[in-house]
Amino acid sequence: MTTVNTAVSERNRRYFKAPVFAVAPMIDWTDRHCRFFHRQISRNALLYTEMVVADAIIHGPRERLLSFDAAEHPVALQLGGSDPAKLAEAVRIAEPYGYDEINLNVGCPSDRVQSGTFGACLMLTPETVAECVAAMKKVADVPVTVKCRIGVDEQEPEEALPTLMTRVLDAGADAIWIHARKAWLKGLSPKENREIPPLDYEIVYRMKARFPDVFIGINGGIHTMDEAEAHLAHVDGVMLGRAAYQNAAILSDVDHRFYGAPATEPDWNDLRDRMMAYAERHIANGGRLQHIARHMVGLFTGLPGARRYRQILSTDAAKPNAGPEVIAAAFAAVDFSGAAEAVSA
């Protein structure tokens, strides 16, 4: 039987109070503006940054890469890398910014990530992942977690996944998020790797049974709150990616369904006003409305007026000197009378 460091189990209990609902890290999508927007819809969902490469933090524009609005908490920083010393240095640099968790990416299958010898290809070298986790833990003052696949290429998941998990848990990892698909490093694009390899939720459930004292979260192909709730009968956390991004209104059900908040209808006008105020601050600091509006386009999918809403945000927000009034115009195009039914569907 697999044993787990009791100190790790205690950290799990303190930080990860199941159930946990999270919005997945997504490159080019979950930037600070996306996260601020999602936080206005759910007060409790755990939000993740897009993956930030350790080298970029060490040598690049740290303020642009790491700064975020205090309203985003709880928010986790996802790092990419395979050099323990560089990852530890990135954690040191990020510490003053106040993230609630540091996550190591062992799941992204893109060619760009593989060329840097990190992401999903690290599943082939679990000892390297363990060394990275151990180095990060030495300098981190918040939980360090790992997000992985069930295996890559010709690996047998029933062997590869528990081997990786045992290594990183022994190195001090506080939690593991598992995307319930293999990644194929050659022959499939990142998009195809999210769709073609078959989902195997059962292996994630078996890992939870095998490591009962470890926080284990599940990711991959989860589209609705009902599906999320069903998974939480087997694991500690559930993570949605594109489903939450492309129809962010579903996040309005998170606080009630998973965190015990009172059941209330979302105040979409209040959301409009808060996003307009946020946009005004961003523009005053030299930003553009499009930086924010692009993340809001899918908010009212399925409602009357949603098409016009999307047109306004996609077209008018991209114009030079576009201001917060574009958000007001977009919201005015939507009929909210069926919003509650659309969210819970």
From TrEMBL:
Active site: 108 (proton donor)
Annotated keywords: Flavoprotein, FMN, NADP, Oxidoreductase, RNA-binding, tRNA processing, tRNA-binding
Binding residue positions for FMN: 78, 147, 179, 219-221, 241-242
Membrane among keywords: no
The protein's Enzyme Commission number: 1.3.1.91
Site (Interacts with tRNA): 105, 191, 194, 307, 310
Location of the DUS-like FMN-binding domain: 23-322
Listed InterPro entries: Aldolase_TIM (IPR013785), DUS-like_FMN-bd (IPR035587), DUS_fam (IPR001269), DusA (IPR004653), tRNA_hU_synthase_CS (IPR018517)
Keyword presence, NADP: yes
PANTHER family linked to this entry: FMN-LINKED OXIDOREDUCTASES SUPERFAMILY PROTEIN (PTHR42907:SF1)
Task of the protein: Catalyzes the synthesis of 5,6-dihydrouridine (D), a modified base found in the D-loop of most tRNAs, via the reduction of the C5-C6 double bond in target uridines. Specifically modifies U20 and U20a in tRNAs.
NCBIfam families per record: PRK11815.1 (NF008774), yjbN (TIGR00742)
Protein name in the entry: tRNA-dihydrouridine(20/20a) synthase
Lineage: Bacteria, Pseudomonadati, Pseudomonadota, Alphaproteobacteria, Hyphomicrobiales
